[in-house]
Write a structure and sequence with these properties.
Elements: H1 2-11, E1 35-38, H2 45-54, E2 58-61, H3 68-79, E3 86-88, H4 94-106, E4 112-119, H5 129-145, E5 164-166, E6 169-175, E7 181-189, E8 192-200, H6 207-216, E9 224-226
Parallel strand pairs: 1-2, 2-3, 3-9, 4-6
Antiparallel strand pairs: 4-7, 5-6, 7-8
């Protein structure tokens, strides 16, 4: 992803590449940049964001692993460092953002919803940030509509067979050679089902969303913005 971001920034007429950094020890090379794009690792990203905030640099973050506690930590860091903003997006694919939006809209109309996400075996976290965020959105809309708990009579289970429970929504993560990034949200109710699926065929597909974030992060009204939805008029 880092290599794709470098190519996208260099190709765009309105952006200029300051530097490309692989190691936290080299952070000083991006001091003075307007925006830094972080596609690193869940173990490193919070340290990067703290350094960027302390140095007045806006952040566009595609690294996974952001739960409520981590987002709260980012808010605290930015509150202590007035000026820079952070955009944290579970997915920079425009179609993926629409998939999450459509899933949230469909959620109140079905008794059951489960999520299957498929990624390359080099991915460090499971479930993916996109799947985690989709489950949160589905659960939120079900709660708003007063939907009952999803039916599930399972009483005997090999650990993990029913997937992870994210806000009451089951999420199943596959890590397979040949995959890039894919997700399917499966809905079911009496007599009918609905499947909403998104497939990224290559990492270039995420770059329009990354560049949108780079161009807009400084003007966002909130210090921490989650997802591309506000930038696309979806929230």
């Amino acid at each position: 992803m880092g290599s794709e971001v470098v190519k996208a920034v260099e190709a765009a007429a309105d952006t200029e590449l300051v530097d490309a950094v692989d190691d936290a020890a080299d952070r000083d090379r991006v001091r003075g940049a307007d925006v830094v794009v972080d596609f690193t690792h869940p173990d490193e990203v919070l340290g990067n964001l703290r350094w960027l905030a302390e140095n007045g640099v806006h952040a566009v973050v595609g690294t996974s692993g952001f739960d409520d506690a981590r987002i709260a930590e980012v808010r605290d860091v930015l509150a202590a460092n007035p000026g820079p903003n952070a955009l944290i997006a579970p997915n920079f694919g425009i179609a993926a953002v629409l998939m999450m939006n459509f899933a949230a809209k469909a959620a109140p109309y079905f008794e059951s919803t489960e999520i299957i996400e498929l990624h390359h075996p080099g991915k460090a976290d499971a479930p993916s940030g996109t799947a985690y965020r989709t489950a949160e959105l589905v659960a939120r809309e079900r709660e708003r509509s007063g939907a009952e708990a999803m039916p599930d009579a399972t009483t005997s289970e090999v650990s993990g067979a029913r997937g992870a429970d994210v806000a009451g929504v089951r999420v199943h993560a596959l890590r397979m050679t040949g995959m890039i990034a894919h997700q399917e949200v499966v809905f079911g109710t009496h007599g009918e089902t609905l499947r909403i699926r998104h497939d990224s065929m290559n990492r270039e597909s995420f770059m329009p969303g990354v560049l949108l974030g780079v161009r807009r992060v400084a003007d966002l009204p909130d210090r921490v913005t989650l997802g591309l939805e506000p930038l696309l008029g979806l929230a």
